[in-house]
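Lab meeting prep.
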Amino acid sequence: MSGNTFFNQIQSKIKSGFLVLIHFLTKLPENIKKFNFSSFWSLIKANNPIKKIRYRAFRWIIYGIIGIFLLFLAIDQNLFWLFGYSPTFHDIKNPEYSIASEIYSSDGKLIGKFYKENRTPVEFKDLPPNLLNALVSTEDSRFYQHSGIDFFSFFSSIWSTAKGDKRGGSTITQQLAKNLYETRKKKSTGLLGNIPVLRTSIYKLKEWITALKIERVYSKNQILALYLNTVGFGNNTFGIKVASRRYFNKLPLELSTVESALLVGMLKAPSTYNPITNPEKALSRRNTVLGQMVKNHALTDSAYKQLYKIPIHLMPGEMHQEEEESYIRSAVEYFVKNWAHKNGYDIYSDGLKIYTSIDSRMQNHAEEAVSEKMKMLQNRLNGQMRGQVPWVDENGNEDKNFLNELLQRIPEYQRLKTHYKNPDSLNKFLNTPHRMKVFTWKGEKDTSFSTMDSLAYYATILQTGLLSYDPVSGYIKAWVGGINDHYFHFDHVLQSKRQPGSTFKPFVYLAAIDNGYSPCDKITDKAVTISYKDITDGKNKTWSPKNADWKFTGRDMSLRWALGRSCNSVTAQLTDKIGADKVVKYAHLLGIKSDLIPVPSIGLGPFDVSLYDMVGAYGTFLNHGNLTKPLLVTKIVDQDGSTIDEFTANPVKVISEETAWLMLYMLQGGIQEPGGTSQALWEYDLWKNGNEIAGKTGTSSNYSDAWYIGITKDLVTGVWVGAEDPSIHFRTSQSGEGSHTALPIFGSYMEKLYHDPKSGIKEGKFPKLKSKIKTKYICPNILPKKDTLGLDSTKSLIPLDTAGSIL
């Protein structure tokens, strides 16, 4: 009999003993209930069969085996809390490991993830043979011969270590026990775990027991799949599916032999053998794995000689984009966090699939439009600020304390103050340059900046927000929270609230129209002084509004013309007639959540609002008077593919269909009326097939905030542009008004959609009224052939008939 055969027989006997032990542990709770320890002990003392054995050595061997049995029993049951927690069979059958939740667009594109450990599981059938051969050949060549513990490898690793060649003897199953059930974590440490050498022995024995349990529950193929879903590949990458994406941008089943060998080679030390940071060591380790495959007859010598020479080819680009912070990812988290808490899910570990309403094609067009126009706007702002102090107050004077106030708003500043207790030391640190990479529109730039330099630089960067949604379904089609989600995490769609300027005016005209006014009613554009009682302090005050160009035409303007021209004087007078409190009421009715004070200037947008709320409010005009809040998340699916929850818009009737339709007509005045503030849209290719667009520009004081909200037959799209701090802004109306900043982004975005036949967005007229309007509106031409402003009267007011059609 050969030595190896003899050893295999011995191992088989030991294996059988362990299986009996595991079977006993399985039935232990039931046996304990039935067992009478007092009677058993009396019986043992009276009839100890071991004492009858003639040879003392054999007696001690039997006592040793019983001792080992009792030790395993004590460890598994955590006797007297000495050994810590051990996985039960229920734990083995229901492994709990952190799985990334994935975010998908409406057209099935993966657009983001939530994870503690970036992991997406894969089934055995999706694992290629070359990967499995590489793994078994390298990590556990006797994997299919043992039942969780390989005593041959265990004793040979001890012998090798004694000779100075340290190598592991753990099987794949033991490694799975350690990785998946965290047998070495603190929760698995009992009282004896505080003793260093003893702790290691307990860990090892616990892994043996757990490995035997795993082998009783799972097949060999299932164990391999579990193992490959569990192991880490560096860079917060867990599991073979995510690793395949990160390093080769492909699915596991598509991996070649050399790619499989490279990934398996990383398992020994993911950082050391990382092909991105240590390509030479990774190549050497990969070839070692190929050699192991030859040794274990999983690869021929001739194939090895060919594969050995192949260099490493990585394609890591796409995965990088999926894993970075993004505005949509943050928005999804905002919308599902309460749902997850209420329903007992953790989006960072439960492997959910979260489906959004985002259309990936429309999202790309929105991002392209933002990138193109914001780069141009930044160059314009830089040109205006050249040679001037960028931050100024409301009177145009330098704000000398700007940077210090900005510094104090940064959370890191408090830590620095605690660390540098001496103000001079802190000041030196803040003004000492060091190497850093900064955002530029020409790409990432490596430069030397002090902390204060960096603050000053980033303060002058213009930001934007874009939200585009279908108000009928409520589905958000595109969401751009800023200019770069890697450098700027703050979202300007949902998180930011800024002064809306004249985009708030439609709420004034809505209140008027809904309370008996007509688009044709006229108010004179003139200087006025409005008296009112300030509800905040109870004092009587006056307010004299100015138009954007500081001029008054003296014209009798229809409400449509006044809104289209964005006339502050008419808006203020109309607010005074209907009451500022009604304006606040209608704004809130249409979904504006901000606190609003009913002051005479309410229509000029003095109170901060979010782009998200404003776009939703404008959607009411297109959706026949129904308020449908923009919806981002549509469905959530669990790991098994079962739908947990679905979300649909819940439209609420807030204004009549007639009023909503008239507001669309009013908002078209920005394009059709003389001097309309939306007329820059004529420069874009948006007007085929009789296309109709309604919209409103908005600009806050000092051009700190620029807005445009546009409505087409399919979409409502809002855009905001400005710096993070209102002290940074354009200096002239020709540069900073909404018509010159936010509107071009809208125009470019819609142009891209119309030029893309696959976008599903086409030109056309607004939907017709579902019922006839109740009031007859006859709007005569109020301008002479050539008025004093030199405007063409053919673009004057358009009469309506009772069917809601243009006469």
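Slide two material, second protein:
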Amino acid sequence: MIQAFAAILGAALTSGACYGAGDLLIGKLGVKLNRTERAPLAFILGAACLHLAVFAILALHLAYWPVFVLLLVGLIAIPAWRAGFSPREASASRPGGGAKAPRGLKPALLILFGAFTVLYFFHALAPESSPDGSSYHLGFVARYLRARGFEPVEDLYAAFSGGIEMVFTPAFAIGKHSAAALTHFAFLIALALAVFAYGQRLGKPWAGAAAAFLVYASPVVGIDGTSAYVDVAAAAITFSVFYWIEIWDEVPDDRLLIPAGLLTGYAYAAKYTAFAIFFYAAGFVWWRRRSLRPALTIAGLALLTAGPWMFKNGVVFHNPVAPFASELFRNRYFHIATIQQLANRFQRYEIANLWSLPLEVTVRGFKTQGVIGPAFLLTPAALFSLRFRAGRRLLAAAAVLLVAYAANIGTRFLIPELPFLALALALAMGNSPGLIACLAIFHAVTSWPGVVGQYAPGAWRLSGRVLYREALRIVPQDRYLRQASRGYVLASLIEEHVPKGERVLALAAVAGAYTSREVLTGFHAAFSEDLEDTLSIGWVEYSQPRVLERWRFPERNARRVRVELDAMGRPDGWSNDEQWSIHELRFFHQGTELPRRPQWRLSAWPNPWDVQLAFDNSPATRWKTWERAAPGDYMEVDFGQPQTLDEVRVETSWDHQLQPEVKLSDEPSRRWNAPGGDFHATPVMPDPNIRRYATRELALRGVDYLLIADDSPGSLDFRGDPEGWGLELAAQGGGARLYRIVPQAGRRQEK
């Protein structure tokens, strides 16, 4: 019960601070809003302001819970104190022009909203068990709080802007995981209120109420908005940008561009794809004024809220928009091939025919991980709203956001578009409250979790049961999470059996928010992916050094040697996505290898950061391009002075069919010349102790523990011969095994 109270307190203080900050700024700007719209717009605007304050606290390493309490209480108290001395002039709501609602429609809608609200509240208050929320959204929040501020984290999810996580941070500091989920639920309530208020502003309150319910009760919105995710919050932000632009269009006051501009930047801080709303806002104000000045005003204000995240990424990852655009901002933190593979996967989700996507996101949901509900199959009818000015604007904003949706077609990435589509659909029905009521009731029935399970059993959704016992901790949190989350079980396994300060390479999904140990996951960063590649070399034959490429030529003096791919590197051209790799590069004279010396200068393109892996005498490591191989890729050695040699050897693997060529250069000409001679490629057997070499390399890089899921590739190899790997079983559970690397000779070093 104490845990539940702390969660409610943390979320209440954070939500109150968001409203207080926004209300204070709106008051300073002298903006007059009606009561219905002031609450949600102030909350969302205040969240943008609070996120900047928390960012500053983390940057200054002042992240102590008393500091957050003082900040939250201050943001609540100051506006309240000012209001006590200068009462706000309440502005009346705009008169509605729609048809009178049938008797009983208002209480019916209130009952529907109330039923879903009760369900949502207890799910949000229950222990956080969502996949992303319990892994990285709150995992990094917990990590920053332990460090009292930001610390460099080599992880692609740490590179994403964390504008919503900053709002979660003070809530988490007070009430832990559930407080963050409740705070996200507050964004959901604000979104529904804003949609309803916009309907009132149009003079069509029942259209606003129906649209708000369509969004609020959508199955994917329900599960996302009651978890520590960010998609619902991003939707609230993008819609509030649209709302402020609409107010600016009605009231010729450029002060209204201040909240709109700040929120466009906050959309970027919340979720990269949500930044598309900037182009709608900037384009709209330019179109209405036929002047660049208001558009530039929005851009400048957006930089205030988006800029800190770009600066952080520039400092930590040398790329302001990390992990993307690594081709432009090359760095050692993320592999280009991995980001491209993820992007391709998110654009398809294993859907063979994208024409089936509407059915997938509305009534199937297994591949795209959720459904928005069968009611949204009526979305094409929203085109009838084009006869209204508001309908045209709503659909224009939705179209801009849908362009960004193409980057990730998962169902929850549609959430920012739903308020616009729902309002346009409701407007298309005209003054027909009866038709609106039928749509709302149909949506309520088909969106209730138990019913969703009947037509979309594989979709990500809420439980149909009100989790009041779990929320109030009558059912202990540990017992509930062990049943609800495999990631939590694995996190507990790590927390119990891995000493503090140790790192774990995990071949399984771990709820990082529930462990204080550093958990590395392969594709999340170049460092961890190199470790996973090294581990795979221990058991995957086509990754092992089983090919010896040899160039023999007349004796030559050379200062530099380059192994390079050219346009003839493979007979069938460069049509696929092969990566070039080299396990070892060696040089010989009369059958004797030239000893490697510290004076040698090594270089490679691409991926110059890993070039040393081709000169470490370990069969379990290799240099890879980590992007599509192309003519001109090379590895080069400058000996520092001319060396006599007559043979070059490359130890490589089967997982590519690329044949490089050798070039030599001597001083003073520094020209590259082919040495002539002949080339042979012969199969070889790898070192029989290659498995021990692999785990030894992990230990040398500061990783002494492995977590391997029983269903992960290669798990049987580890289970069948842990001694051959130099491993000992530390613990098992949750369908995974935790191994400790047995200490071997060698000096530990960080990569």
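Talking points for slide two:
Residues 163-201 form the longest helix (39 residues).
The chain has 26 helices and 14 strands.
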